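Subgroup meeting minutes
Present: P.N., E.W., G.H.
Scribe: E.W.

1. P.N. recapped why we're keeping a running log of single-chain structure predictions: easier to compare across weeks, and new members can see raw inputs and outputs side by side.
2. G.H. added today's entry (237 aa).
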Amino acid sequence: WKAEGDAWLASAGPERHEGGVGGSGGAEFYGIETRSDRIVFVLDRSYSMRLPVPQKGPVSGAKRDEGVAGGTKLEVAKNQLERTIRKLPPDVHFGVVFFGANVRDWQQPPGLAPATPENRKRATDWAMTHEPAGSTPIFAALAEALRYAKIGGGKSATDPAGADTIFLLSDGAPTRPGTDELLLGPELETAIQEFLEANRGFKCVVHTIGVGPDHNRQLMMRLASETGGTYRAVGAE
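Output recorded in log:
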């Protein structure tokens, strides 16, 4: 990555669905837009997501400053997800992952679901059932999201059916799966590098949303910048 990452990022932009919604495909989540039609939404449902969103900054990051209802960070996140999925064009294929006490898929990978009216309703109904629990296994959730990039047995970004865009939302710092222990120092750096290496062949763009004042800003900014994505902080002091 150190040897080739800069050149890859500089050359791959048009293929990585950066920019605003337009033409076929497209979505907007927390005010971040993509033209992709193969998207995975990855949302934190850890115990800290039960807390209210601070009001000193934007709560939802919604485009045109519309705002999204909800009293807690998780309620706002679920309502924002519902808003986004409801507006998906029919040619978009998508998946949804929640992480906290464990990692849960709406639909098992590697298959992405077409954004039919039935699937949009099924996905949002499923999302609304989640309650805050557990810690913040961000990298386990990202590994799960990459499984959607392998649809059809593909092993690279040339797979025409696999996911190429991930939206990651979290309000905290990454933990070891199944524990409350934070990933820090060399262990955190190893987890970052392992994800970037796993993503090298797929070239998934990772857009990151940090909710509240306690999310790991440096991590979320780095994941976005090193994959060609956008970072946004919402509800932060």
